[in-house]
Amino acid sequence: MTFTDLLLPAIAFILGIVVAYLFFRQQISAIEGRARNDLERWKIECTTDIRKDSVNRSRSTLKGRISEQMAPFLPEFPFSSADARFIGNPIDFVVFDGYTSVKDDKGDVINIVLVEVKKGKGRLTREETLIKRAVEEGRVSWQTIFLKDEGPL
Question: Can you tell me the distance from the alpha carbon of 50 to that of 45, in angstroms, rounded to the nearest whole number?
Fold first, then answer.
C-alpha cells in the first residue's frame, strides 16, 4: 500500500464528515427557523388573550380591594361600621365591637375582633391563617408603651 492509496480514503472520509456536518447544520438551522416562526405566531395569536387575562385579574384584584374597604357598609358585615377600623395588611379590619355604644353611654363591654374579608372563592393566606391561629390559641396581649417627654418643641 502506497501513501496515495491511504490518502484518497482519508480525504474521502474527511469530505464525508464535512458534508455531513454541513447537512446537519442546515437541518438544525431550518428547525430553529420553524421554531422561531412558531413562537412569533404564538406570540401574535396569544398576546390579546394574555392581555385580556391580565386585565381581568387586575380588575378582580381591584374589585376585591374595594370590597374589603366597603365591607362595613354592606349588609353581610355583622358589626357596626363605626366600630370597624381598616388596616388592610396583614388583616383587613380590627373591629371594636360595642365601642360606639360605650361612647354613647349605652354599653360597658367592648369585644375586639380581627376581621379578614374575602370575596368569591378567596382563601386565607398563610400569614392570615397564622394570625387566626394566634387569636384562637389566646396568644394575644395588651401593652401600653410610655414615651419619654422631651419637653417643648
Answer: 10
Query: What pLDDT is attached to residue 153?
Result: 63
CA 27 to chain centre: 42
**Helix, strand or coil, per DSSP, at residue 109:** coil
Q: What is the pTM of this model?
A: 0.61
Other Cβ atoms closer than 10 A to 93: 22
Q: Which helix (H) or strand (E) holds 115?
A: strand 111-115
* C-alpha cell at position 119: 370575596
- DSSP assignment, residue 21? H
Amino acid present at 40: E
Amino acid making up residue 9: P
pLDDT surpasses 80 at 135: yes
In order of 4, 30, 73, 79, the CA distances from 76 in angstroms are 98, 62, 9, 9
The Cα 83–Cα 115 span in angstroms is 12
Query: Is the separation of the CB atoms in 91 and 128 below 8 Å?
Result: yes
